[in-house]
Amino acid sequence: MASSMKFLLILFFTCSPLLQGTLAEVVCENLPENLCSFAVASSGKRCVLENYKNEEGNLEYTCKLSEVMVERFAGYIETDQCIAACGVDRRFVGISSDAFLTPEFTSSLCSPACYRNCPNVVDLYFNLAAGEGVFLPALCENQKRSSHRVTLELLSSGGGALATAGGSIAPTPASAPGPAGF
């Protein structure tokens, strides 16, 4: 009897990180700054970290609800494993497509550890890339061939459709599906 109870406790604590965000309602304004970025409120809207100067003039941070809806991840706080695998930082204030300009970031985002296992982060950057006219799966495919060339072409094109010797990173078609596997 005691051994089965011990097994259940071990099982619970082993699985609890997988349940993160599902046991309680996620309210962006209630999240500490170290959990805000890459979290999705129970309402389905993304949380964003914002900074402001307090009365003494010191920089402080607060978590706010954005207007961006992502219903399939409602009530979700990204895991530390995905934060590390995808090369992102929970202290990001606002999220920008500028991250695609660094080969290290694109390499981390496109790595199997991130791209296959972290759908929340990939979904966010899939949509950011689409806003720049870039189809993330094609960007990742080209990144495997030559990350520096892809970065240079992103810089020179302003983020629009990219052509490389090995193919092209086409603008996202209006009917394009979301990130592969989601």
UniProtKB/TrEMBL annotation:
User: Which controlled-vocabulary keywords does the entry list?
Assistant: Signal
Q: Name one Pfam family in it.
A: PAR1
Q: Which organism is it from?
A: Handroanthus impetiginosus
- Superkingdom of source: Eukaryota
Tell me where the signal peptide lies: 1-24
Name assigned to this protein: PAR1 protein
Q: Which PANTHER family match?
A: PAR1 PROTEIN
InterPro entries recorded for this chain?
PAR1
